[in-house]
Design a protein that fits this description.
Elements lengths: L3 H13 L4 E5 L2 E4 L5 H13 L8 H18 L9 H9 L3 H12 L3 H19 L4 H7 L5 H12 L3 H6 L12
Antiparallel strand pairs: 1-2
Helix pairs in contact: 3-5, 3-6
Length: 179
């Protein structure tokens, strides 16, 4: 689950099955009591219809948690982390960063850093499309050291300068699920 709509779908499906839960967060649901195998199968089928799936593999679950922490950090948090991303992830997930990095690369085929930067660029695209902030404000909001740094990274990832991207009529952005 990487978006609020996903959380709503999960809550709805849990309620339809009569399952009680304390919390549904991005990437996990805390269910009260035991789930019967039949209920689990029904939940899995219902979630798959919505493009979601249950995860029971511990490695896959941890990779999803890494993704969710990064998505939360980039798309839903305004404040800048005060430590390196590696330290932030280690602290947040209670695992050694080298284990997290190796696992993530093994499962996703890209590095955590590339995943993080890809999401930052998608957020920058969003801010450019909204046209409410200038590049200096976007660079500041996204915690780049300068507009030049933002522009260089943007061009590296998209092949376009931010100003050229802004001029395009069909501004192509990826959904969070596609990134």
């Amino acid at each position: 689950m990487v978006c609020i709509r996903c959380q709503i779908v999960v809550k709805s499906e849990l309620e339809k099955l009569g399952l009680h839960f304390t919390d549904v967060k991005i990437g996990e649901a805390n269910i009260i009591g035991n789930i019967l195998p039949k209920q689990l199968d029904k939940l899995d089928a219902a979630l798959r219809k919505s493009g979601l799936q249950l995860m029971d593999n511990k490695k896959s679950i941890l990779v999803e948690k890494i993704k969710n922490v990064i998505i939360e950090l980039v798309h839903y948090t305004e404040e800048q982390i005060r430590v390196n991303l590696s330290d932030y992830l280690s602290e947040k997930l209670n695992y050694d960063y080298s284990y997290l990095a190796n696992l993530f690369t093994e499962v996703k085929g890209i590095t955590i850093e590339k995943f993080y930067l890809t999401h930052k660029i998608e957020k920058v695209k969003e801010l450019i499309v909204y046209n409410e902030l200038n590049l200096t404000e976007i660079a500041y909001k996204m915690h780049y050291s300068s507009v030049a740094h933002l522009s260089n990274q943007f061009k590296k990832f998209t092949g376009l300068t931010p100003s050229h991207f802004k001029k395009l009529k069909n501004k192509r952005r990826d959904t969070l699920e596609e990134v």
